[in-house]
Amino acid sequence: MFSVSRVAGFVFIAATALSGAATGPAQESTPAEQNSLRVCADPNNLPYSNDQQQGFENRIATLVANDLGKKVEYFWFRQGEKFFRRTLNSGVCDVVMGVPAGLNEAATTQPYYRSTYVFVTRKSSGLPITSLDDPRLLTVKIGVHILGDSKDSLPPVHALISRGIVKNLVGYSIFGNLNEKDPPADLMRALESGQVDVALMWGPLAGYFSKKSSVPLVLTPIPEDKLNPELPFHFDIAIGVRANDTAMKQIMERELERRKVEIQGVLNAYGVPQVEIPQTAQHMQAADHAEPHAGPGRNE
Predict the structure, then answer these.
(1) What residue ranges define each of the domains in the chain, with the CATH number in brackets?
(2) Residue ranges of the chain with pLDDT lower than 50?
(3) Bridge pairing between strands 113-122 and 198-202
(4) pTM of the entire structure?
(5) CB atoms < 10 A from the CB of 256, how many?
(6) 44-95 pLDDT, tens per residue?
(7) CB-hemisphere CA count at 13 Å for 77?
(8) Helix count (H) and strand count (E) of the chain?
(9) What is the mean pLDDT of the chain?
(10) Closest by CA position to 78, among listed 7, 147, 26, 15
């Protein structure tokens, strides 16, 4: 089973966590007392966030803060396995935008969008791929994002390997280095130049970088894998808060509901592919909101 923590690493475009970041000490105050919405975010993680506040999570955070009559105060930190320990759970911020619903490291709000992995092909190739069982996947060059360790392989990679599709896979690091701009875009550039024939990418990345591409591209959602039914390809995305911060969780959930239309507009503007959020996920989050101390996503 592909764990939620692995999904978090991908959705965040994780890199090796820094030993520190420039910001002040943690502040102890209630949401009502604060003059700002304190957000922890990655400074080089488009389309989600960057230190110029050009990502869609930056825009949503600003939308929420303005609604609350506050300003956004960022604590910038590269996202990796120690991200939550050194940021949200150390008290230097109160909110992390765009985390997988049900994440162990934080409490999460109701999801505000659900995205999917997609096939990406050049429109001129006449090669629309719509199934993991398409026989052409046995011979074409397939670009995928890699995390560097087989146990960390992303769902599309697991699915292809289970079908014996290995030799024609071309891996592109999702991490890059600390100074590289938009490292996940390397895979899209490889597709544009013809180095690979099809790319399998996480939807928000594919949608954003395809909109900037000079080459017309086709994005097709990857359907559920019949050979590996436990392997997830669609994920609910929410806002993360500290496990016991019931007040902030409720504030964020009210804002997500109040600004649903505007948030959807931001997601559309960034080309985020979306699928319908299952009613079961919404009901679980509604129950969590009604009984905040017993809901999912809590940790020690």
Answers:
(1) 4-113+235-290 (3.40.190.10), 116-221 (3.40.190.10)
(2) 1-6, 8-10, 12-29, 150, 283-300
(3) antiparallel
(4) 0.82
(5) 19
(6) 899 999 999 999 999 999 999 999 999 999 999 988 778 999 999 999 999 9
(7) 26
(8) 9, 12
(9) 83
(10) 15
